[in-house]
User: Which sequence fits this backbone?
């Protein structure tokens, strides 16, 4: 009788320990998932902040650029207006999607301006213009690089929060899918056609 009781008690202890171990393991696993999702979210925020800083730096250079070329390109008011409008749209953009569209408009407008500048030898010889052109071109390249990093981070984040079991932890954390910093091919064509029409007016 005593032996049987010891066996039952030993079995209960083993079962209890197994349950406790399972619960602790589950809690540790959830904590790991939670921390991983927090890290991914923070990586997204940091990657976006890097892009936003570069966009602001480019915004700050545009008035200097327009002021520099204005005296040389008096017959290119539409081109200058396109750059000014693109800057305003970029500064007023709120969401990532709006900023992506505004970034594309700005890039197209700047390319148009630099293309037109080729027709003005005196402007091309202006040291201030050349410095601004190089600075803006460098910013464009850095924005493109950062955009790739950001989109990779967002893709990883969106995939993780949609997978099981992360989806349950993400739901508890109220994490939502995020937008990538990109525009569709259709939007790209519309912006280019629109700008070319304005430049040719």
Assistant:
């Amino acid at each position: 009788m005593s032996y049987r009781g010891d066996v039952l008690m030993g079995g209960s202890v083993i079962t209890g320990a197994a349950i406790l171990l399972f619960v602790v393991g589950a809690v540790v696993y959830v904590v790991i998932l939670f921390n991983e999702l927090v890290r991914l979210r923070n990586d997204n925020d940091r990657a976006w902040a890097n892009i936003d800083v570069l966009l602001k730096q480019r915004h700050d250079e545009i008035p200097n650029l327009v002021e520099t070329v204005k005296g040389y390109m008096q017959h290119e008011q539409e081109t200058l207006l396109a750059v000014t409008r693109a800057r305003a749209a970029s500064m007023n953009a709120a969401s990532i999607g709006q900023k992506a569209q505004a970034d594309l408009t700005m890039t197209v407008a700047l390319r148009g301006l630099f293309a037109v500048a080729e027709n003005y030898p005196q402007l091309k010889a202006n040291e201030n213009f050349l410095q601004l052109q190089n600075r803006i071109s460098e910013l464009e390249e850095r924005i493109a690089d950062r955009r790739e990093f950001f989109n990779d981070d967002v893709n990883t984040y969106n995939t993780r929060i949609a997978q099981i079991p992360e989806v349950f932890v993400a739901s508890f954390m109220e994490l939502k899918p995020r937008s990538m910093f990109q525009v569709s091919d259709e939007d790209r064509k519309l912006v280019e056609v629109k700008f070319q029409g304005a430049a040719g007016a």
